[in-house]
Design a protein that fits this description.
The chain is of the alpha+beta class. The chain has helices at 38-48, 108-115, 131-149, 174-178, 196-208, 236-245, 266-269, 338-365, and strands at residues 5-6, 11-16, 22-28, 65-69, 71-72, 75-76, 81-86, 152-160, 163-164, 215-222, 250-255, 289-290, 293-294, 299-305, 315-318, 324-327. The strands form five sheets. A five-stranded antiparallel β-sheet has the order 1-2-3-7-4, with helices on one face. The longest helix has 28 residues, at 338-365.
Amino acid sequence: MAGNSFGEAFRITTAGESHGRGNLVIIDGCPPGLALDEGDVAAELARRRPGHNPLVSTRSEEDRPEILSGVFEGRTTGTSLAILVVNADARSTDYDALRDAYRPGHADHTYEAKYGLRDHRGGGRASARETVARVAAGAVAKKLIRAAFGGEVLGWVSQVGVIRACVDADRVSAREIEELPDGSPNHVRCPDVDVYPAMVASIEEARRERDSLGGVAAFVARNVPAGLGEPVFDKLKADFGKALFSIPAVVGVEYGAGFEGATMRGSEHNDPFVPGPTITTETNHHGGMLGGISSGMPIFLRAAVKPPSSLPREQRSVTASGAATTVTTMGRHDPCVLPRFVPIAEAMLALVLADHWIRWCGQRSALG
């Protein structure tokens, strides 16, 4: 197994690198009849696109998707969907000095250890540029779960560095995440307007100091029917974990009470699996899943994201032969990946829900 495919009944396979000709995703298992056009995909790609947000990478990619197959007269055919996104603004010469040196915090050494060679141009397949294909597939998955059961996946930035937001997961809307109250773009994707200015200032300060910041993103999946997920190895929570951990920079995932649950007693951690006057999405300790199967309550997850490792400052490292050296990463990089991480993670969570929805439907209808 090459590790480039994800999902079972709704399965994606991706190909592409940071500085290759483009990124491609093939989707198998999408039901026929789903209304879909390139505008649906483009809208999601625009949310992760670099070059349009002053807080992220200045790499300027239009990220125009081209649906190569699987759609006829505006609807999916049920055959494999292929979506291509061309790379147009790669600057490979920015990485010439890194041909024989490993960047600290990157996968340079491990890729070379695995394959015996590596693509030093922006990290090749290890670059977050490959996530453009995931977001394209996620756009299809989002349309599918919305059409199938009114499903919705929303994510937002809940922490940048040490600055924490206070967000009501039961009430937060996509508009609050994408726009500020005055209608201007929410560049951090944090709907807490009280801490938003401090988050912006913190990211800008890190960029001026040629450094970077990490943080936490939170996610809620709404209207998910009870019964999604498989026993033992394909638990819904396990597939969510794999989906999020597969994204570059993710260092931790939790759902429901998460690690805080380790400090509770069982009588405190147990709660009803239906909403009540004191049970909200964020205080629901089981996070919308019991036994790895959806309970019918909103699903709540968090992902911790490390600070980007590509820094325009001198750092100690080694060469491929093991000699000590220093490296300065050139190119265009995010001082904080969280604003663009949100749509990527939403896409992965939607892919899991689409996959398990189709699997569940197959099980329920197998005997009529």
